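Researcher: Quick test of sequence recovery. Tokens follow.
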């Protein structure tokens, strides 16, 4: 009865809230319009030097004038007047230090003006070498190149005047460090953004003498004895090992799984090589000034194998990255009009939080902005500017971002998410399968996202957190090592719920087929139990012909390799309701949040220990408002509830909600939500 009373009161309340005159505007709208007016004549800063635009082509005819205007004191003063607190400027693109020195000096002068106006300055560091200029300036730079199996240089897509440097070449890093010295000590950068660092897909992997020596050194470290080498490869010594060579540019497209143990180790070696290169640059920056923010454009996690494609494995960057950039095509937040798939970067936000790094993503679209508000983690570094003022948001003026700016320090910092469930993406399963493993893993995550289950997405490196979760889910994680099996079984014996789906654990950590699956049958074991879901049945993928190739991890530079699951295929499984019920019915003491919102509304639940508050964020992906819905949240702190307040950019001020508190739970009704709302529970 209490729930019905609350619901009736809130429905009446909602009708009053949204029955406003069409001409009335919230204070957030008024602020946005004011800043839009102040910003209308601003020429926005860019990270690209004009020489690059001229060499690449495809630019506007007034670029020289634009570059002159954007660095002027008057333009920067206008930025400050509009409330801009951050900007990224061109610094080093790869033409060569001497060639770019005039632009670097201009960047130093521009940064000085920006700092005088209280702005944080980000400088751009590209990761390719321009052969037409750098090689004239530094002839030995030709020896820093990546070289494929045919001893050919590796270009940046069709921009063949740009070559990738080998990640195992220390001379190249030393050259970059000379440039960083200027950015840190002369320009006094607050942030350094490293771009173009991903490695390219096979057959464009670097096979230079440096890499081949480093690979054999890696094998010696991993398999130090003859017996270990024989067990892994059937060969007695790393010197005998030969990495697979491709007979054509397209041969890698036919690969479905990696069974060759040398190729398996080659993928991990490439990931480590890239991470070691970046980690060294990170440590160098911090040795010069620990307050400088370091960004690497390594993207997030998606539904295809980026270890194999780009040599990016985010856990190798842990403690050596402050911001990761998404910078992708095809992953902007929306519901696909053809398939009905709910598409977002939620997975990437979740792994970033667990790696203690922030995210850079465009916030120009309101839906992207509120996702960043709800799911984003802000790493506390002196050089950082608050997320609503930083990259992706600094020159966007919408009611949602004005709301974000108002409440950023109060509600959007110093938070950690509440998670009943952890979804594991382990290395061997995701690295050695090109596509098959990604389908069940992605679809299981999609169920949790759309059914609003509080969850974390984990790599195997975070399994030391296992006891923090009521349930751990492995969906199609076909390769589970003996050590991980024992860890997971101990988790179950101590009272955890292990949910496995599909062919989980049918192979060991080297993708060797097991005669008996150690995680089956489903059973009680110790204080916990193993729950088995035989199949995650894909939903209907399309209503008409759909282009599944729109997503791109680095537009213009990365080859597409073989099969991949694209965002329009993220359709809820046909048996999603049964899987959801199986999961929640087996979780002891229920999940931390349950609500009646539709499947096109997503949720993130966070605690803010400093203020003893629990924050529930709700985001409506549907074009139509989400009707009022009942919500129950488990209390996260001891003591009586002080207040339950409702915030939204659609209202000037927060509103107190009626609630019922009993048996350790708080029940209330969220009013109609157009796009985004936040409920703050204070104890």
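Model:
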């Amino acid at each position: 009865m209490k729930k019905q009373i609350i619901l009736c009161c809130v429905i009446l309340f909602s009708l009053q809230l949204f029955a406003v005159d069409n001409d009335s505007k919230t204070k957030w709208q008024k602020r946005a319009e004011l800043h839009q007016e102040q910003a209308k004549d601003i020429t926005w800063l860019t990270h690209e030097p004009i020489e690059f635009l001229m060499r690449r082509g495809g630019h506007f005819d007034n670029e020289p004038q634009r570059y002159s205007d954007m660095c002027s004191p008057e333009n920067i003063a206008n930025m400050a007047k509009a409330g801009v607190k951050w900007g990224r400027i061109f610094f080093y693109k790869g033409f060569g230090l001497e060639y770019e020195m005039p632009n670097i000096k201009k960047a130093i002068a521009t940064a000085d003006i920006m700092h005088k106006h209280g702005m944080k300055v980000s400088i751009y560091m590209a990761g390719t070498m321009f052969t037409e200029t750098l090689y004239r300036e530094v002839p030995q730079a030709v020896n820093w190149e990546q070289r494929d199996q045919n001893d050919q240089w590796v270009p940046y897509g069709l921009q063949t005047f740009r070559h990738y440097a080998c990640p195992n070449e220390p001379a190249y890093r030393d050259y970059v460090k000379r440039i960083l010295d200027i950015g840190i000590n002369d320009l006094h950068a607050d942030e350094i953004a490293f771009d173009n660092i991903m490695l390219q897909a096979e057959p464009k992997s670097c096979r230079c003498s440096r890499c081949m020596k480093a690979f054999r050194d890696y094998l010696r470290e991993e398999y130090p004895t003859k017996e270990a080498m024989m067990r892994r490869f059937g060969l007695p010594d790393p010197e005998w090992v030969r990495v697979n060579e491709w007979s054509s540019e397209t041969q890698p497209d036919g690969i479905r799984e990696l069974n060759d143990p040398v190729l398996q180790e080659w993928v991990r070696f490439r990931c480590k090589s890239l991470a070691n290169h970046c980690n060294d640059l990170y440590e160098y920056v911090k040795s010069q000034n620990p307050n400088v923010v370091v960004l690497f454009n390594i993207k997030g996690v998606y539904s295809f194998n980026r270890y194999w494609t780009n040599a990016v494995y985010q856990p190798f960057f842990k403690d050596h990255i402050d911001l990761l950039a998404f910078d992708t095509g095809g992953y902007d937040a929306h519901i696909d009009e053809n398939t009905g798939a709910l598409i977002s970067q939620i997975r990437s936000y979740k792994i970033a939080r667990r790696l203690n790094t922030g995210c850079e993503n465009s916030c120009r679209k309101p839906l992207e902005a509120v996702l960043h508000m709800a799911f984003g983690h802000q790493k506390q570094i002196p050089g950082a500017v608050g997320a609503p003022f930083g990259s992706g948001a600094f020159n966007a003026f919408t009611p949602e971002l004005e709301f974000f700016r108002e409440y950023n320090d109060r509600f959007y910092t110093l938070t950690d998410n509440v998670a009943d469930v952890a979804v594991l993406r382990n290395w061997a399963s995701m690295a050695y399968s090109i596509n098959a493993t990604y389908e069940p893993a992605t679809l299981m995550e999609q169920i949790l996202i759309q059914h609003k289950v509080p969850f974390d997405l984990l790599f195997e490196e975070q399994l030391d957190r296992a006891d923090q979760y009521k349930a751990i889910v492995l969906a199609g994680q076909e390769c589970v090592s003996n050590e991980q099996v024992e860890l997971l079984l101990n988790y179950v014996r101590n009272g955890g719920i292990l949910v496995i789906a599909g062919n989980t654990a049918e192979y060991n950590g080297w993708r060797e087929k097991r005669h008996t699956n150690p995680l089956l049958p489903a059973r009680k074991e110790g204080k916990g139990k193993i729950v088995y879901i035989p199949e995650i049945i894909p939903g209907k993928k399309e209503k008409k012909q759909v282009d599944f190739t729109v997503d791109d991890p680095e537009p213009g530079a990365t080859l597409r390799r073989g099969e991949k699951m694209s965002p329009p295929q993220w359709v809820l499984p046909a048996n999603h309701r049964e899987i959801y019920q199986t999961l929640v019915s087996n979780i002891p003491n229920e999940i931390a949040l349950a609500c009646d919102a539709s499947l096109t509304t997503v949720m993130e639940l966070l605690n803010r220990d400093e203020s003893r508050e629990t924050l529930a964020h709700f985001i409506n992906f549907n074009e139509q408002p989400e009707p009022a819905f009942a919500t129950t949240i488990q209390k996260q702190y001891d003591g009586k509830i002080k207040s339950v307040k409702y915030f939204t950019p659609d209202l000037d001020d927060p509103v107190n909600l009626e609630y019922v508190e009993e048996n350790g739970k708080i029940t209330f009704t969220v009013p109609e939500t157009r796009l985004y709302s936040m409920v703050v529970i204070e104890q």
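DSSP finds 19 helices and 27 strands in the chain.
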